[in-house]
Structures are given as C-alpha cells and as structure tokens.
Design brief:
- With about 280 residues, the protein is of the alpha/beta class.
- A 6-stranded mixed sheet has the order 2-1-3-5-6-4. The protein has a 6-stranded parallel sheet with strand order 9-8-7-10-11-12, with helices on both faces.
- Strand 7, helix 5 and strand 8 form a beta-alpha-beta unit.
- Helix 1 packs antiparallel against helix 9, helix 4 crosses helix 5 and helix 4 crosses helix 8.
- The protein is globular.
- The relative contact order is 0.13.
- The model has no long low-confidence stretch (mean pLDDT about 95).
- Bound molecules: 2'-monophosphoadenosine-5'-diphosphate.
- 2'-monophosphoadenosine-5'-diphosphate binds next to helix 5.
C-alpha cells in the first residue's frame, strides 16, 4: 500500500501588525534547505479574533508559532505549560502545538545571550553591564544575562516602577549579582561599564535621539542596540565614533529564531542559511 503523504506543516508569526516580520524569510529558507515539508506564514490577527484564531490551530495544521507585539502576554490563557524562564520574563515569544496543548517558551533572552557569547565572544561573567529600558525585551535579556553571572547589572527606565519590579524579579531568582535600579542615566555608572544595552524602542524611528550622552561612551565598551529595523541608530553612530564595539539586534533575531526552529522541529537549525536570509553577512 502506498504510504500516505504527511500533511504540510504550518508555522508562523502571530502579531498585529506583523506584515514586516523578517521571520518568514529566515524559517522558510531553513525548511527548504533541510527539505522539511513546512511553510512559515504571517498571521496578522486583530485582537477581537484572537480566540477564534487559537481555536482554529488544529484545522489549519499549525504546529508552531512565534508571538510578537501585542500578544506576548495575551497568549497566556491559551498556553498549557510555560517554561520557568518565560514565566520570569512574563512573555511568550514561541509556542509549540502538541496533542496535549500549547507549550510556551521565550527564546528572546537566550537568543541575545547566544549572539553575545558565540558571535561577539563577550563573556558576561564578572562584567559590569548597563541596561536602558525595563520592558519585555529588557526582562528577557536581563533574565538570561543573570544566568551568565555578571558582576553588576544597572538598569535605567523612564518609568522607574518597571525597573524596581524587574530588579525584584531578578533578585528573587539569582544571587551574587549586584542588581541596581538607576534613577537616571548618570547613575548607570557607565564609566566602568563593559556592556551597554539599549532595549528601548528609542532608535527605531528616523531622527530618534540617543538616550545616552556620547561623552559616557568609551573604548573597551561593547554597545549593543536591540533595534534591528535600521542599519544604525544614533547610539550606535556615537558608539562607533568613540571607538566602542557595536552590535545591533539582528543577531539576537537570528538566534531566537534558531532556538524556536529547534523547539518546533527537533532539528539543528542551519545557521548560515538563516543568517543569509536575514541579510546578515558575517555571523
Ligand atoms: P519591548 O517588548 O520591545 O521591550 P515594551 O515592553 O513596550 O516593548 O518596552 C518599551 C521600552 O522602551 C520601555 O522600557 C519604555 O520605557 P517606559 O517603560 O518608561 O515607557 C522604553 N521607551 C519607549 N519610548 C521611550 C522614550 N521616548 N524614552 C525612553 N524610553 C522609552
């Protein structure tokens, strides 16, 4: 008897808006390279249709999802089990559909740490780190940075209550790291900072300023701006002019995608193929 052909597996990114996502290019290139019969699509779903969307996963043969703005928390009611890291971060960016229900992961922070350590060869252990922002991206980055045992993480956010909350969560789950909620940029202690990370959305728009006065940037500092929607930001330009090492968030996007791919398929993600699809020249 002829073997029944397995159904095409569907993956995708759920968001609103989600049209400009780079993830379809990255994942479809990987499926094609590994000859996996699957497609990665964009699911731009209005908030009022979210419940219907989750009810239709089986019918649509959806096996896995990336979750983006504004649904990284709205998905919680549909998830059967979340990893401890996703709980700590308070956001899910990757979902695996299983017969027993949906599993929720957060690969953003781990993706950041992989890019930092594997590609940029920056070992956070014993280092002084300063973080701008205390939103979802910051929480993901900080939770994973703590696993790498830096000496200090100082966080500044415009809304200080979020910084205090984040420092509290990190303190509850780690020890031996000096965790500080700075009440101004001046208190970030940038003079002896090894790694400065911008997790805020400042820099995404044309003519956005840098939150940090260029005078605080110094040689020997790695400046990592999570923004990847543009080649450079004012912060990155200033950092280059002050001879700092500079990175943007494309590497983090690549690694969070590779981690999601592994969760969904169990296969080793083809890094070169995926980075080429993102337009990354050197990884
Ligand atoms: P994400 O999931 O991308 O982190 P988010 O949770 O909405 O998105 O967080 C956005 C971050 O950018 C926050 O730290 C936000 O600061 P507030 O909490 O004070 O709003 C920060 N941010 C956005 N616009 C900003 C601005 N103009 N100046 C300073 N910080 C800004």
């Amino acid at each position: 008897m002829a073997k029944k052909k397995a159904a095409l597996k569907i993956f995708g990114v759920l968001g609103y808006p989600a049209k400009h996502s780079l993830s379809p290019a990255m994942h479809n290139a990987a499926f094609k390279f590994l000859k996996i019969d699957a497609r990665y699509r964009i699911f731009e779903v209005e908030p009022s249709k979210l419940k219907d969307f989750f009810s239709s996963l089986g019918r649509r043969a959806i096996c896995g999802l990336n979750i983006t703005i504004p649904y990284k928390q709205s998905v919680f009611p549909y998830i059967r089990h979340m990893t401890p890291e996703a709980v700590m971060i308070g956001a899910v960016n990757t979902v695996k559909v299983t017969p027993k229900g949906l599993l929720g992961y957060n690969t953003d922070g781990e993706g950041f740490l992989h890019h930092l350590t594997k590609d940029l060869l920056f070992d956070p252990r014993g280092k002084n780190i300063a973080v701008l922002g205390a939103g979802g991206a910051s929480r993901a980055v900080c939770v994973y940075l703590c696993k790498a045992k830096p000496k200090r993480i100082v966080i500044f956010n415009r809304d200080r209550s979020k910084t205090i909350d984040l420092v509290h969560v990190l303190n509850m789950n780690t020890s031996g790291i000096d965790l500080v909620a700075a009440d101004s940029i001046a208190h970030l202690r940038l003079e002896d900072t090894d790694l400065l990370i911008n997790t805020t959305s400042v820099g995404m728009k044309d003519n956005d300023p840098s939150l940090v006065d260029a005078g605080y940037l110094h040689k020997g500092m790695l400046v990592y701006d999570l923004v990847y929607s543009r080649k450079s930001t004012r912060l990155m330009d200033d950092a280059r002019a002050r001879s700092c090492r500079v990175a943007n968030g494309l590497g983090m996007l690549l690694y969070q995608g590779m981690l999601a791919f592994k969760i969904w398929t169990g296969r080793t993600p083809p890094k070169k193929v995926m980075s080429k699809a993102l337009g990354l020249r050197k990884t």
